[in-house]
Design brief:
CATH superfamily of the largest domain: DNA Cyclobutane Dipyrimidine Photolyase, subunit A, domain 3
Structural class: alpha/beta
CATH topology of the largest domain: DNA Cyclobutane Dipyrimidine Photolyase, subunit A, domain 3
Radius of gyration: 23 Å
Bound molecules: flavin-adenine dinucleotide
Strand content: 5-15%
CATH class of the largest domain: Mainly Alpha
CATH architecture of the largest domain: Orthogonal Bundle
Oligomer: single chain
Shape: globular
């Protein structure tokens, strides 16, 4: 058999199903202009991808293979390759609308085989008894635990493969026109070793601590395989570590990916209620420029823009503030996060924004409105996180930074007063939502 191995969200050689097919192979990676054109020229993800594509090429070479790298539309690439006598294209799956349409298009040019790698479960593996998708996380999670077998994390053994003769010249990454800054988290295995899984439950909500794994970007691009991660959990479990809280979060990722597979419109449209945010460019700009005057929100946005990461609890606080206090359309906030998050995944991002906006599958309705001051007082008591990203507030007592009344009076010449009042915004949001709560 002669196959094209299309690397996309699996930028690694270890435990990669693409390398388990015996025969002649053409491994390739495509820089797709449809995706790249959407990115700003200093997008941090490009530094990450470029680094890992080059590393992948080198690791394939060490195995006697190579990687052909293209900058073109996948359609044009496969139109060029199709006449060269390939039996099939093999790639791992992605569920968003763009990826699904792209793969369908390629399957008209060459037989297309999707292999499971990006997620632990296929969407069809976890359905309710009546064959419909789960809409609530807990039953989905229970089903995932019930159906999980060692086969789900079995390591793929590399097969004997010979390299199809092609042009495998070095690719000039500078020709892509990106400044490709190198992000801090490059090595997935270092990140895995550094992560104190045993403390996850007790530290994961405190944004000043590195209590979470920071593995999102590696899981996103497959630089750390999901099966490798789960085998690591199994080893830790044998050593007595409670791995369940972390496993649960990984299953949230599956839950959202499956939902998007079943309901592709959730990328941009509400699941549950007809209410929409109220477009307001000025408020949106204040949020994106970290000028809301609410320290925990502004610190979160600064973290995101500076580092490409935002702590999960801060994501929840920011998204709630954006959709409830500012009453802005969740889709705008989702796009802002998408532009900056290194670990951006369409499913997790859109569905989490819908969760925050109260428009998603979550049965808890729209009246869950976080108080950002109570949140920061609880999870960043000494304002360590806030002042890390808002150093101008360093001299202000932590208590003041969690105190809306004090902030409304003004605390620093170079820091704005809050642009909304929590209580008033809450009342306004509830009235707005009540008016539009007919289900869709
Ligand atoms: C508004 C909003 C937007 C988000 N956007 C994204 C996104 O674009 N991409 C993304 O991967 N996650 C997203 N999340 C979920 C979560 O915030 C991140 O996965 C997590 O912060 C990544 O950091 P970590 O790797 O240290 O997480 P850890 O806590 O160490 O979790 C390990 C892994 O589990 C998965 N995970 C953890 N929590 C969640 C969750 N709530 N939902 C889905 N998967 C989860 C991720 O793959 C993560 O890397 C979003 C959450 C919110 C509230």
């Amino acid at each position: 058999m002669r196959r094209i191995l299309w690397f996309r969200r699996d930028l690694r050689v270890r435990d990669n199903p693409l390398l388990s097919f015996e025969g002649e192979v053409l491994p390739l990676f495509i820089f797709d202009p449809a995706i790249l054109d959407e990115l700003s020229k200093d997008d941090k993800r490009m530094g990450f991808i470029v680094h890992h594509v080059q590393k992948l090429k080198q690791e394939l070479q060490e195995r006697g293979l190579d990687l052909a790298i293209f900058y073109d539309t996948p359609k044009r690439v496969f139109e060029t390759l199709a006449p060269l006598g390939f039996d099939e294209v093999v790639a791992s799956g992605d569920f968003d609308t763009y990826a699904t349409a792209r793969d369908r298009e390629i399957s008209h040019l060459l037989p297309f085989r999707l292999v499971k790698d990006t997620y632990v479960f296929e969407p069809e593996e976890l359905l309710k008894k009546d064959g419909s998708p789960y809409l609530v996380f807990t039953p989905f999670y229970n089903a995932a635990k019930e159906r999980f077998t060692p086969l789900h994390v079995k390591e793929y053994v590399p097969a004997t493969q010979t390299l199809f003769p092609y042009m495998y010249a070095a690719f000039d990454m500078n020709s892509l026109g990106f400044s490709t800054p190198t992000p801090a988290t490059l090595d997935p295995h270092e990140a895995l070793v550094r992560f104190a899984l045993e403390n996850y439950l007790s530290t994961r909500d405190f944004m000043a601590q590195e209590g979470t794994s920071r593995l999102g970007v590696h899981v996103r691009f497959g630089t750390l395989g999901i099966r490798t991660l789960l085998r690591h959990l199994a080893t830790q479990k044998k050593e007595g570590v409670d791995t369940e809280p972390f496993f649960r979060q990984l299953m949230f990722r599956e839950f959202y990916a499956h939902l998007l597979h079943h309901f592709p419109h959730l990328e941009t449209q509400n699941f549950r209620y007809a209410f929409e945010g109220i477009p307001n460019a000025k408020l949106h700009r204040a949020f994106c420029e970290a000028k809301t005057g609410v320290p925990i929100v502004d610190a979160g946005v600064r973290e995101l823009v500076q580092t490409g990461f935002m702590h999960n609890r801060v994501r929840m606080i920011c998204a709630s503030f954006y959709t409830k206090h500012l009453l802005l359309p969740w889709q705008w906030g989702e796009r802002f996060f998408a532009a900056h998050l290194l670990d951006y995944e369409r499913a997790s991002n859109a569905l989490s924004w819908q969760w925050s906006a109260g428009t998603g599958v979550d049965p808890q309705p729209y009246f869950r409105i976080f108080n950002p001051y109570a949140q920061s007082a609880k999870f960043d008591k000494e304002a360590v996180y806030i002042t890390r990203f808002l150093p101008e507030l360093h001299a202000i007592p932590a208590k003041t930074l969690h105190d809306e009344t004090a902030l409304l009076k003004g605390v620093h010449v170079h820091y704005p007063n809050p642009i909304v009042n929590h209580k008033e915004a809450r009342v306004k949001a509830l009235a707005h939502f009540k008016k539009h709560t007919q289900s869709i």
